[in-house]
Structure formats: structure tokens, C-alpha cells
Amino acid sequence: MNDDTATGWTVLNDAHEALRTAVRGVAAGDWDRPTPCAGWNVTQVLQHAAGDQLGFAAFITGGPGPSEDPFAPSGTLSASPSAVAEEAMKASADAWATVGKDDQEVAVPVPPGKLTASLGAGACALDAAVHAWDIAVATGQPSPLTPALARELMPVATAIVEPLRAYGAYAAALGAEDGDGDVAALLRYLGRRPDWTA
């Protein structure tokens, strides 16, 4: 998805498409599989990712946020996986569509609570994209995180992730290794092993 008709933000559209692709690719028996998010199975990562998208939407619109704590996902979905994902992404897309490209302060659920519009949309996209990768690699799918998307998200990550590590939202960064491409560099910065397997 390279236009910006859904959200007004190409990077967020691309991240949502990555999450959509990953969720659709999960086989029925794979929702309990372990993921790169230690202690969480695939269902819980989806709940977390959906909750985060709803959180961004709520901060922008003042509407309702997620029904449960995204950092303590129950592992029980309220609807089908695709429905959970699509509802959250639609709320996020609708909210971001109301944000002007030049807005200097947009309320967001990450420190410091307000970001420029482009950085805020990038933060929302980063969350969707990295959890799309988590779901995909946990279930034997190809990575939906493309080098182009990773390149676009890396400056966002370096701008927002450090304060989030203190809350446990991201693990400590891993050192770069020879041969790392854009995707591997982003994953290592976010504390993930690019070669992770269950």
C-alpha cells in the first residue's frame, strides 16, 4: 500500500498492511505459539498490538481506549483475530486521518505524551510493524517488515524508544553484526534477534 488514502500517512498504511498480512497468515493452530516477546504467545502479541493502535486513536480523539491493558494481554480474544486487528487499525486510521501533516503537538500514549504529527504517526507505525514481524516469525511466515519500511522507521525508533525501555516496552538494544541490513538493524535496536526462532 503506497498511497496515503487510508490514514493520510503512508508509513502507517504500510505498517497496518504488514500487521494485516501477518494476522491473516496465522494458521488456526498457531495462536498459542511463543513469540519474540518473552512470555507472550501469538494471541497476546495481537492483543497488545491492537490495544496499542486503540491507545493511539483514543489519545487523538478522546474516545475509548483498549478494553484491557495492552501490557497484560489476557490471551482471550473478544472476536476473530482478523476482526480484532481490523477494528483496531480502523480506529487508528480514522484518528490519524484527522491529524494535519504540520501539527506540532499530537497527543500520544508514549513519552513525552505529545509528538509532532510525523513522529507520532511513525511511532504508531513502528508499533504495528514490529509486532507484525513478531507474529510472522512466530508462525513461520516471511517477514512483512520490508527494508524500505524499516529504513523509514529507524529514525522514529531512535527518537522515541529509549524512554520506553524504562517501562519494559522494549528490551535493551543488541549490538550490530556484520551483514545487517535495514530490517536487522531496526530489530536489533528494538532488542530483537533478527534470527529468532521458536
Please give the structural blueprint.
Blueprint: H1 10-24, H2 42-61, H3 81-96, E1 106-107, E2 114-115, H4 117-138, H5 147-165, H6 182-189
Antiparallel strand pairs: 1-2
Pfam families: MDMPI_N
Organism: Streptosporangium roseum (strain ATCC 12428 / DSM 43021 / JCM 3005 / KCTC 9067 / NCIMB 10171 / NRRL 2505 / NI 9100)
GO molecular function, one term: metal ion binding
Keywords:
single chain, 198 residues, mainly alpha, Four Helix Bundle (Hemerythrin (Met), subunit A), 6 helices, 2 strands, Maleyloyr_isom, metal ion binding, CHP03086, MDMPI_metal-binding
How would you explain this protein's 3D organization?
- Residues 13-136 form the Mycothiol-dependent maleylpyruvate isomerase metal-binding domain.
- InterPro entries: CHP03086, DinB/YfiT-like, Maleyloyr_isom, MDMPI_metal-binding.
- GO terms for molecular function: metal ion binding.
- It comes from Streptosporangium roseum (strain ATCC 12428 / DSM 43021 / JCM 3005 / KCTC 9067 / NCIMB 10171 / NRRL 2505 / NI 9100).
- This is Mycothiol-dependent maleylpyruvate isomerase metal-binding domain-containing protein.
- It is built from 6 helices and 2 strands; from the N terminus they run H-H-H-E-E-H-H-H.
- The protein has 198 residues and is mainly α.
- It has a single domain (10-148), classed as Up-down Bundle (Four Helix Bundle (Hemerythrin (Met), subunit A)).
- It has a two-stranded antiparallel ribbon with strand order 1-2.
- The protein is globular, with a radius of gyration of 15 Å.
- The model has no long low-confidence stretch (mean pLDDT 94).
